[in-house]
Amino acid sequence: MVKIKLVSLSMVLSIALFLCIGSYASFTPVDNYLIACGSSQNITFQGRTFVPDTQHSLLSLDGGSSVVVSSKATTVPSPIYQSARVFTSVASYKFEIKEEGRHWVRLYFYPIPKSERNLASSSITVVTDEFVLLNKFSFTNYNGSFMFKEYAINITSDSLTLTFIPSNGSVLFVNAIEVVSVPDELLPDQALALNPSSPFSGISKLALETVSYFDR
Ligand SMILES: *[C@@H]1O[C@H](CO)[C@@H](O)[C@H](O)[C@H]1NC(C)=O
Ligand SMILES: *[C@@H]1O[C@H](CO)[C@@H](O)[C@H](O)[C@H]1NC(C)=O
Ligand SMILES: *[C@@H]1O[C@H](CO)[C@@H](O)[C@H](O)[C@H]1NC(C)=O
Ligand SMILES: *[C@@H]1O[C@H](CO)[C@@H](O)[C@H](O)[C@H]1NC(C)=O
């Protein structure tokens, strides 16, 4: 059994839900974007193939100028962090969505050291048309060398636009992005809210951020 705790971006809401790994494993997502940003080749990570952002036919990168940084150093936390696309102005990735509904959106960040730009001091803002996923995040205030963020977003149109907004004269980067369909039964619309402890419905309209998982 896996226990997932989710926190809404706009209010303090915790829901606990339990699911069986068996039914999850057999699910084939309709939308399944695994994108290695700035990479020149496919990257296999945890048994899945991430495709370079320039080579995916259903993905477009709009606006802004960008450069690529990469590292072959053995200190890179995992293969997915070997490359990054670095934006110097506002830019966005547009994903064509085949099936509306809830999707995982996963973002991977690792400020590759010794690149021409000081990525660790980047100020990172990421928004969708509806939600702010990251607001001026910077590794200078973060106790970790890399960061993984996961959101569950109900997409109600035929595309998802992720816009990356640098601020304060800094650059911004991203190493990898996933946009993957979630089976509907995984997130029931009505679940028990732990704080406040009353039934809460309307979860389908919110963006949820996964904050912890896996019972020990
Ligand atoms: C990269 O992966 C994609 C999707 O799995 C595949 O279609 C493509 O042939 C791969 N490209 C190379 C160069 O291996
Ligand atoms: C940063 O992480 C290290 C190792 O996990 C820990 O020992 C330290 O207390 C943390 N520092 C802060 C400010 O959270
Ligand atoms: C903006 O950049 C300047 C110079 O690098 C720095 O002193 C200041 O703290 C930054 N402000 C924010 C809000 O990050
Ligand atoms: C997504 O939102 C639409 C419109 O609000 C709703 O009808 C649908 O049930 C939601 N889907 C999920 C999986 O939450």
Automatic annotation (TrEMBL):
Q: Which GO terms describe its molecular function?
A: ATP binding; protein serine/threonine kinase activity; transmembrane receptor protein tyrosine kinase activity
One Pfam family this chain carries?
Malectin_like
Localization, per the record, is: Membrane
Which residues does UniProt assign to the signal peptide? Answer: 1-25
UniProt domain Malectin-like: residue ranges? 35-187
Q: For this UniProt record, give its keywords in alphabetical order, as a comma-separated list.
A: ATP-binding, Glycoprotein, Kinase, Membrane, Nucleotide-binding, Receptor, Serine/threonine-protein kinase, Signal, Transferase, Transmembrane, Transmembrane helix
Q: Name one GO cellular component term.
A: membrane
- Taking the first listed entry, what is the main subcellular location of this protein, grouped into a coarse class? membrane
What is the membrane topology here?
A: Single-pass type I membrane protein
Protein name per its UniProtKB record: Receptor-like protein kinase THESEUS 1
